[in-house]
Design brief:
By secondary structure, the protein is α/β, with parallel strands linked by helices. The protein has ten helices and twelve strands. The chain has a domain of 222 residues: Type I PLP-dependent aspartate aminotransferase-like (Major domain) (Aspartate Aminotransferase, domain 2, 3-Layer(aba) Sandwich), CATH 3.40.640.10. The protein starts with 32 loop residues before the first helix and ends with a helix.
Length: 378
């Protein structure tokens, strides 16, 4: 396991180096101050009002329309919402999207969780799980007996991204895009369910899931409902679809989450859509990986350039440097949440590159890490 410091070294980073905003967490992520200000301005007529009335339903409608625009959804796709976050959607998918057998690509902590949910479901056949070493990703393999392929756009724990392509065989394609949606490009023709939560690229809070469902996915939901398969109401995608078409959720949502989510989507679309938001992530990734490649004490954890995430970067530090001490010093100087994913157990930093994070702040962070490493070496 990586070490964790108990006493933070007393190192002051010069104010001229410190980022304008020191939030680099991989979720919850930076919320743009403009969104918080807008929420405060709307609070007296929005917060604490009924989610079944026009005030809130208009925000849900704006959010659904904005996401359809952002992802260039073809006719027939439905932006569907529910409470509980991505974990709840995994459970709902085991009831409402997998008919008998699924195939899962597992290459980190989060991509393995949907596979575990499918394996535990007594009404499903054992899933096929394709794995690869951390820092890489496997490839889907077409099978005649697989009716759902479970892919992950970005593995948050390791900083690996993968392109989304549809396998040649039959079956739906469901993509966990929790940390990738809004920051990575995707072709909607390649998926049937592209699902995510808003606490990462969308600069909001957790507890909500969104799924972009194709006509084929909707047909699967309807067919399984007609088959008589029992589904808990809170996980029933039929209920979620019916309510989403009415611009509401089945049970009470967090109104602040919806507002901040919609504000971020509007910001993306007003400035050029997915090309704008992904372009910001591209620029931040270019800055950070160029710095890591050139630093004599740092190395990108993911070896292949094309697999290095543009939304969550992982950088190994030389064994002579205590990454935990570096992260602790950064935190003491107001630069927070650069610690690695603990279960990965590496001497590294994990740095979010989400669209709300200014690329200039990423450059400043790199300069701060260089300063701290030099001071620790003393």
């Amino acid at each position: 396991m990586i070490p964790y410091v108990t006493d933070t070294p007393d190192i002051r980073i010069p104010a001229s180096l410190v980022p304008g905003d020191g939030r680099f967490g991989s979720g919850p992520s930076k919320v743009r101050p403009q969104a918080v200000e807008a929420l405060a301005a709307a609070a007296s007529t929005y917060l604490g009002t009924s989610h079944r009335q026009t005030t809130v339903k208009s925000v849900v409608a704006s959010l659904r329309d904005g996401l359809a625009q952002l992802f260039s959804l073809p006719d027939g796709y439905v932006v569907t919402l529910g409470n509980g976050g991505t974990t709840a959607f995994w459970d709902g998918a085991t009831f409402c999207l997998i008919e008998r057998k699924s195939q899962h690509l597992s290459f980190g902590e989060f991509s393995s969780k949907f596979a575990a949910a499918a394996a535990a479901a007594p009404h499903l056949d054992d899933p096929e799980v394709l794995t690869s070493e951390v820092g890489t990703h496997p490839e889907a393999e077409a099978r005649d007996d697989v009716d759902l392929y479970a892919l992950t756009h970005n593995e948050t724990s390791t900083g690996v991204m993968m392109p989304i392509t549809r396998p040649a065989g039959p079956g739906l394609v469901a993509v966990d895009a929790t940390s990738g949606a809004g920051g990575l490009r995707v072709d909607p023709s390649a998926f049937d369910a592209y699902y995510f939560a808003p606490q990462k690229c969308f600069g909001s809070d957790g507890g909500l899931w969104v799924a972009l469902l194709s006509p084929a996915a909707q047909e699967r939901v309807a067919a399984l409902a007609a088959s008589g398969r029992w589904v808990p109401a809170s996980l029933d995608l039929t209920i979620a679809l019916d309510n989403s078409r009415l611009d509401q959720t089945y049970n009470t949502p967090a109104l602040a989450t919806l507002f901040l989510f919609d504000h971020q989507v509007r910001w993306f679309n007003d400035n050029g859509g997915l090309e704008f938001s992904a372009g910001r992530c591209d620029r931040s990734a270019e800055i950070l990986y160029t710095w890591a490649d050139n630093a004599d004490f740092a190395t990108p954890f993911v070896s292949r350039d094309q697999d290095r995430s543009h939304v969550v970067a992982t950088v190994d530090l030389d064994g002579s440097i205590d990454a935990a001490a570096v992260a602790a010093v950064l935190r003491a100087n107001g630069i927070v949440d650069t610690e690695p994913y603990r279960k990965l157990g590496r001497n590294q930093l994990r740095i979010a590159l989400f669209p709300a994070i200014d690329p200039e702040d990423v450059a400043a962070l790199c300069a701060c890490v260089t300063h701290v490493v030099g001071a620790l070496a003393g």
